From TrEMBL:
InterPro entries: AcTrfase_RimI/Ard1, Acyl_CoA_acyltransferase, GNAT_dom, YpeA/RimI_acetyltransf
GO molecular-function terms, A-Z: protein-N-terminal-alanine acetyltransferase activity
Organism: Lichenifustis flavocetrariae
Pfam families: Acetyltransf_1
Enzyme class: transferase
Name under which the protein is recorded: Ribosomal protein S18-alanine N-acetyltransferase
GO CC annotation: ribosome
PROSITE patterns associated with the record: GNAT
The entry's keywords: Acyltransferase, Cytoplasm, Ribonucleoprotein, Ribosomal protein, Transferase
Its EC number(s): 2.3.1.266
Family: Belongs to the acetyltransferase family. RimI subfamily.
Domain N-acetyltransferase: 14-164
Length: 173
């Protein structure tokens, strides 16, 4: 039977907008849920307000709560993703893909031609997401990350995404 209330209980799509300093505390809290070495609120304030920083936030349109964010640092025509995270309760809804794609489009507008990032070799979710969005592996840093349980040293893969200034694809235009 078709539900008479098809949208009831279904989360509305997030709003993607530039990351503002007022969200530094929420960024720190969210970051701490995903990374062993997390950055505090003041660190995020410093990063977000830096003149060469570009961030995008995914917000719940109803509560304005932070669902995810991405933050990069730009130098000349290159940029490096410093971090990207989506709240665990909201993963696999396409938010990560939307954040990274919107971010690429915004970096293109400020004339960034190449975007780099590092990802743990065992981070299947992130590697799949980046691969889908056109990132390619260009390097490998052995024993770069350390995990606790089990205690392991994991390689970081260096990924690169060329940003063609003339290109306008559906997912990153
Ligand atoms: C990586 C991360 C940002 C992905 O966010 P997300 O909102 O769940 O990603 P999306 O829903 O947009 O997924 C996009 C694609 O990525 C891949 N993907 C995402 N999660 C996956 C998982 N758990 N397993 C396998 N593939 C996965 C899939 O290809 C997915 O597309 P599909 O759902 O159509 O199959 C999120 O898992 C996260 O915050 N992880 C912890 C922090 C982290 O590792 N950040 C990256 C550091 S480099």
């Amino acid at each position: 039977m078709i539900s008479p209330f098809p949208l009831l209980g279904k989360a509305p799509p997030p709003v993607i907008q530039p990351l503002k300093n007022g969200l530094a505390d929420e960024c720190a809290a969210l970051h701490a849920t995903a990374f062993r070495y997390s950055w505090g609120e003041h660190e995020f304030e410093r990063l977000i307000s830096a003149s060469n920083a570009f961030g995008d936030a995914a917000l719940d349109p109803r509560k304005k709560a932070l669902l995810g964010f991405i933050l990069s640092r730009v130098a000349a025509d290159e940029a490096e993703v410093l971090t990207v995270v989506v709240a665990s309760a909201h993963r696999r809804r396409g938010i990560g893909r939307q954040l990274v794609a919107s971010h690429i489009a915004r970096l293109r507008n400020v004339h960034v031609k190449t975007l780099f990032l590092e990802v743990g070799e065992t981070n299947t979710a992130a590697r799949k997401l980046y691969g889908d969005l056109g990132f390619v592996e260009v390097g490998r840093r052995k024993n770069y990350y350390r995990t606790e349980q089990p205690a392991e040293q994991i390689a970081a893969l260096v990924l690169r995404r060329d940003i063609d200034p003339t290109q306008r694809r559906g997912w990153d235009a």
